[in-house]
Amino acid sequence: MADIIDISELSDEQVAEMRRQLAEKEGRPAHPPVRHVEVDGIELDVDMRRMRDYRTLALIAKVERGDEFAAVELFQWILGGDLDRVVEELSDEDGFCDAEAFARFSARVLEEVGAKN
User: Fold this and answer.
1) Which of 8, 41, 91, 113 could form a disulfide with 97 if both were Cys (CB 3.0 to 4.6 A apart)?
2) Which ranges of 26-115 would DSSP assign to H, the alpha helix?
3) pLDDT single digits (tens) 69-99
4) Using the 8-state DSSP alphabet, how is residue 10 labeled?
């Protein structure tokens, strides 16, 4: 009888590796680990590889050292192709996207995907 694995006890990395191995065995490409979140009524699929990428760590370090402009680059990186849509959805009827509202939204996205401080 095959061993039964309780997936709830596995880390995200272990699950991703199992997914990769299964896809490889089946001869199909593995899809990147994506986490679907909804924040302020805006739905996103966040590529979790970006959350573990060196660039994310480097940008967070810059933000924590007081470089507020690094936050712009950080959220551009994390939101990827969804950035323009998010800005549009956060904008008012005049097309103004408040920077503080965008920063709050982005912080909530980080919370939703389980990013560690």
Assistant:
1) 91
2) 48-51, 54-64, 69-79, 83-90, 99-112
3) 898 999 999 998 999 999 999 999 999 999 9
4) S
